[in-house]
Amino acid sequence: MKLKRPDECNSPEEIRNEIDKIDQEIISLFSKRHSYIEEIVRFKNDENEIIASDRKEQVIRQRREWAASQGLNAHIFEQIYTLLIDSNIRHEMNLLTRKKS
After folding, report:
1. Cα(83)–Cα(79) distance, rounded to whole angstroms?
2. CA angle, residues 11, 73, 52, in degrees to nearest 5
3. How far apart are CA 36 and CA 59, in angstroms?
4. R_g over Cα of the chain
5. Which residues have CB under 8 Å from 75's CB, separation 6+?
6. Which of 54, 62, 56, 65 minimizes the C-alpha distance to 37?
7. DSSP letter string over 28-88?
8. Would the pTM count as exceeding 0.85?
9. Is 9 helix (H, G, I), strand (E, B) or coil?
10. What is the arithmetic mean of pLDDT over 34-63?
11. For helices 74-100 and 53-69, what crossing angle results, to 10°?
12. Max Cα distance, the chain (Å)
């Protein structure tokens, strides 16, 4: 993806267009991530394996650290990943229920 640097933009519209390109790429990456979420259920046999509390905590902690290392608000990314992982857990539970049927 070819982006202008922020200082190369000459108007708010140009900046918004670049932000839109970035957001589109982020959504594409979330879609790719989701395909892995769909597949991991093949290796899980019960609710405890899906919930995986230790893994959830480790992932959230690591994403928080990654955000902080980039100068971002770590708390916000903790919330984002908590929401994302909780949603993935619900989705995996539904897939597991179908798998067992």
Report:
1. 6
2. 130
3. 15
4. 18
5. 64
6. 56
7. HHHHHHHHHHHHHGGG--SHHHHH-HHHHHHHHHHHHHHHHHTTS-HHHHHHHHHHHHHHH
8. yes
9. coil
10. 96
11. 150
12. 57
Class of the CATH domain delimited by 10-100:
mainly alpha
* Dist. CA 41–CA 29, nearest whole Å: 20
The CA-to-CA distance between both ends of the chain, in Å, stands at 43
Q: What is the pLDDT of residue 100?
A: 82
Long-range contact pairs involving 68-71 (C-beta distance under 8 Å, separation at least 24): none
Residues present in the chain in total: 101
Region label for 52, one of left (φ > 0), alpha (ψ between -120 and 50) or beta (otherwise): left
Average pLDDT on 68-76 reads 98
Each domain of the chain, given as residue ranges in start order, spans: 10-100
